[in-house]
Fold this sequence. Notes:
- The protein is mainly alpha-helical.
- It contains eight helices and no strands.
- Helices cover about 80% and strands about 0% of the residues.
Amino acid sequence: MNKLPVITLSFWIMKICATTLGETAGDLLSMTLNVGYATSSLILISVFLVSLVTQLKWDKYNPFLYWTVILATSTAGTTMSDFMNRTLELGYMSGSIILFSLLVTTLAFWRWSEGPGSLSVDNIRTFKIELLYWIAILFSNTLGTALGDFLADDTGLGFAGGALLIAGLLAAVTLAAFFTKISRVLLFWVAFVLTRPLGATMGDCLTKSHEEGGLALGTMGSSAVLAAVLVSLILITVRTQSAKEAKLSVVDAELQR
């Protein structure tokens, strides 16, 4: 049984919302609450590991559990990236290159060990592939944070400019999916990586001061609003899933008569 959601428009909306919340919540813990990058990384990685183990042991798709793990990788990725770039002083460019290499290595090992078609999320039906899937997501979300900060700070685009650039790239990926024969697996992973820096730059745009090019909404207020939106979307997903299952049960009962 595939324990992952169907890839629809709502999936991408929830992904962007979750990654934006990951950015603001990570900054809330490490900066606003002054916990620090190293301690925040340890806390959030622990949350990620607990939620991941639960997800791996679960026997079917659970929307709340799945998006909890996605959110955990986003918040952990935010603090891990900041720890690499600021505490270790690697810089956004070096951090992005290291994380990109780790992501490519993970996907390459996945493809080598399980075959070309295994990278499709429709084929994630074994423990090993699901574990590789979540490792790739953790690296992609951490990479997204570093890449988003690089675009916003080092290139001079600012938070809004970085978000617009990433949004443009995502629009190009969407057009490629509809009008070209480029591998849908490749386009999925490109889009999955790009939604993280979009969330990172959007999160910075919401929380940073006006002088820094943001909207000055603060990490606490932004996180609360984003959490409410994400929970609402998950509840809609659960309701839709329950309605479909009930309809299938009725159809099955009719067929058995």
